[in-house]
């Protein structure tokens, strides 16, 4: 076969033999002859490979199934998502002619237009979509490349089904007027500022142009505005299922008139969204006054997430207006000193519902720097992989503690359904906790099996473990039962970042080590109490402490011994 191909080609290239490179004209002609032969051979090889690939089983797949496989792959491997494989799923079209032809003949595969590969790639993808509705997702910087993308986006906005634009306010103001109003196919609009120190402008917050905000888009369901706003009476808000508005607190002057609107307008806007599923509002609330809606309560039966961030009066006011399904996640972050009394009635009604839902499972209480607390709760433990995350909390309350006391936290804990909690993590920062404080916060947690405690208050927590729920020492009772014991079902206690030797001075006969052993011994003497396992993590504890504890409980120690320097404040929360 080799001889056949050689004999077939040689007569056509024999004239190129013996030509000197110094003869520029003859050499150029000879190179062209050889290049033509190489091209012909390449085409012949491609044809042979195509015929060979046609004999594989996968070539028998109908084009519809192959396209469906490509769609799944495209969702997993987006272009420009991996530095080593910049083309993402598009690499699959380079495998063989059949796969390439199949992909090119399917415009829907190219409708998620990627601008991160550059304007040339974006333009090619736009051509391949033909007349199909498209998704435009681009981060436009103030460069010549960004300007090219801007011009390209403007030409195709009329076909946009989804728009996600990250750009400076000046760029957004230029491009938005090109959007047809109203668009009959637009379903998603997400606008946000381009965070660049050189591009960030004073007018970070700007108003969505009236040509857009003043129209009702028949198919628009998802609207996310960061750094820009619309008036609550704007028609664009009607019929949404997802609404996010987030203003930049550093540049509030531009939105001064918008923020002075009446809370009633916000309430009317929510009424126009009866199918709302996700509501995220950040620093965009009307200034007030916020009064109870009385009997005028808005029911949003499809809600999945309510996330509010701003002044406590506004956050609590919005929450009190709404009646949400029990499965809805509620996350409230207060940016000022909060009077939790304005939220307790709503919380009691919301968290106490949901008979058919999994019971509340995990509770986390940690400091909200510089003051205050974060109270976070989750229902099913299997909802997270390694440790619970605040963004996924079923209930989240962040508040500043204007009293500099534990009273607001205790009041909140009296409302929360703590009876089913199985796992708890408590870190209270600089607050001093007495035994009654621990019992006042966690005394209603009768099902806890695992606890995480960090900081200097671990020793007082251990002392509370030898108390009853009415603050009486177990040692003073003749026949204490498990039901009366504080956290009577606790099996595992994880102690994190407690510098035992440096924090506590050993003075006999009432040394902290001896007292700790005594408290745990008294607890273990209570009938039906499970044997306790203590996990010591990053504590720098001395080995003699560990050996003394092992006489009473099971100890799992990471081996870190001796005094430890104080860790940064934020690291103490990484305790799971």
TrEMBL record:
Pfam families: F-box-like (PF12937). It comes from the Eukaryota. Residues 58-115 form the F-box domain. InterPro entries: F-box-like_dom_sf, F-box_dom. This is F-box domain-containing protein.
């Amino acid at each position: 076969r080799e001889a056949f191909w050689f004999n077939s080609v040689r007569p056509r290239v024999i004239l190129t033999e013996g030509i000197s490179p110094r003869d520029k004209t003859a050499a150029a002609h000879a190179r062209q002859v050889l290049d033509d032969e190489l091209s012909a051979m390449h085409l012949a090889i491609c044809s042979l490979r195509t015929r060979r690939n046609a004999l594989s089983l996968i070539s028998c797949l109908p084009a519809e199934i192959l396209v469906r496989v490509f769609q799944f792959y495209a969702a997993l491997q987006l272009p420009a998502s991996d530095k080593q494989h910049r083309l993402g799923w598009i690499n699959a079209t380079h495998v063989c002619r059949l796969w390439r032809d199949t992909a090119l003949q399917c415009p829907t595969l190219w409708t998620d237009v990627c601008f991160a590969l550059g304007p040339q790639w974006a333009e090619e993808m736009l051509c391949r979509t033909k007349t199909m509705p498209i998704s435009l997702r681009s981060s436009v910087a103030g460069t010549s490349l960004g300007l090219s993308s801007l011009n390209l986006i403007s030409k195709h906005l009329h076909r946009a089904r989804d728009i996600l634009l990250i750009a400076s306010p000046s760029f957004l103001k230029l491009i938005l007027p090109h959007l047809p109003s109203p668009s009959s196919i637009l379903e998603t609009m997400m606008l946000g500022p381009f965070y660049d120190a050189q591009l960030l402008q004073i007018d970070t917050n700007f108003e969505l142009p009236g040509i857009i905000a003043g129209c009702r888009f028949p198919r628009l369901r998802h609207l996310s505005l960061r750094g820009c706003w619309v008036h609550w009476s704007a028609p664009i808000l009607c019929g949404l299922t997802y609404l996010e508005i987030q203003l930049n607190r550093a540049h509030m002057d531009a939105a001064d008139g918008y923020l002075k609107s009446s809370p009633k307008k916000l309430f009317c806007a929510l009424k126009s969204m009866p199918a709302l599923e996700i509501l995220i509002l950040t620093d965009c609330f009307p200034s007030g006054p916020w009064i109870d809606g009385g009997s005028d309560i808005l029911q949003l039966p499809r809600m999945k997430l309510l996330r509010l961030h701003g002044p406590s009066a506004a956050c609590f006011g919005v929450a009190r207006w709404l009646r949400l399904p029990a499965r809805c996640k509620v996350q409230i972050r207060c940016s000022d000193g909060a009077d939790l009394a304005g939220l307790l009635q709503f919380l009691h009604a919301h968290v106490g519902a949901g008979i058919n839902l999994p019971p509340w499972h995990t509770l986390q209480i940690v400091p909200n720097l510089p003051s205050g607390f974060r109270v976070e709760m989750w229902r099913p433990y299997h909802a997270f992989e390694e440790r619970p995350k605040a963004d996924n909390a079923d209930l989240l309350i962040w508040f500043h503690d204007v009293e500099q006391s534990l009273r607001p936290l205790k009041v909140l804990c009296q409302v929360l359904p703590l009876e089913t909690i199985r796992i708890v993590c408590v870190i209270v920062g600089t607050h001093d906790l007495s035994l009654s404080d621990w019992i006042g916060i966690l005394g209603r947690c009768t099902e806890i099996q695992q606890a995480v405690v960090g900081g200097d208050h671990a020793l007082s927590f251990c002392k509370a473990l030898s108390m009853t729920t009415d603050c009486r020492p177990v040692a003073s009772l003749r026949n204490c039962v498990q039901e009366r014991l504080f956290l009577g079902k606790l099996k595992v206690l994880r102690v994190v970042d407690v510098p035992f030797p440096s924090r506590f001075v050993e003075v006999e006969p009432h040394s902290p080590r001896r007292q700790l052993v005594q408290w745990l011994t008294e607890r273990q003497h209570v009938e039906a109490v499970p044997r306790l396992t203590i996990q010591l993590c990053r504590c720098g504890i001395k080995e003699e402490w560990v050996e003394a504890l092992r006489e009473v409980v099971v100890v799992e120690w990471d081996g870190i011994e001796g005094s430890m320097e104080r860790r940064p404040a934020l690291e103490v929360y990484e305790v799971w």
